[in-house]
Specification:
The protein is mainly α. It contains six helices and no strands. The chain has helices at 23-36, 43-66, 76-99, 106-118, 121-133, 137-170.
Length: 171
């Protein structure tokens, strides 16, 4: 990298430091904050994450009621919910970053709220503990490993397929 007239520093932004905003942009932000008040604060984000989380957790609970796991049985429902949720997260992230300019509250609502409430890795941990306590340590360990591998494979595959579909659609 070459040096400029700034005392030998490389061209471009300094890593770890955000350049200051131009005065006009700072003034626009200040006017917007005065005009909208708390709408630009954290409250709308917290509200949509809460609403989305309640929606996603309700869907997960509904799945557990439809397909209950027998005591000591393999928790297929939780595994399926986590894998499907991770695949949806992969699709969603590609769509909102590459295809669609979403409203600022869509990502917290759907990504963090709905899909965060739907996927349930805390229930996975409880299921593993129940299997271990019930004398099925190998099954619990296999379930834990399968959940991690399947979730990672689902999100990666969904991202890959969605990228390909978007590229195909644009040609």
């Amino acid at each position: 990298m070459g040096a400029d007239r700034t005392g030998g520093r490389p061209y471009g932004p300094v890593p770890g430091r955000t350049p200051p905003l131009p005065a006009a942009r700072r003034a626009r932000r200040a006017r917007r904050a005065r005009r909208h008040g708390p709408l630009l604060g954290p409250w709308p984000v917290l509200a949509v994450v809460s609403l989305g989380g309640a929606t996603g957790a309700s869907a997960r609970y509904g799945a557990a009621l439809l397909w209950p796991t027998a005591a000591g049985g393999f928790p297929w429902t939780t595994l399926l919910v986590n894998v499907v949720g991770c695949a949806l997260i992969g699709v969603f992230m590609v769509v909102i970053t590459d295809v669609w300019a979403a409203h600022r509250l869509v990502r917290p609502f759907f990504g963090t709220g709905v899909l965060g409430g739907f996927t349930t890795f805390s229930t996975c941990a409880v299921d593993v503990q129940r299997l271990v306590d019930g004398g099925h340590a190998r099954t619990g360990l296999a379930y834990l490993g399968l959940t991690l591998l399947a979730a990672l494979a689902a999100v990666w595959s969904a991202v890959w397929v969605t990228h390909r579909a978007v590229a195909w659609r644009q040609t």
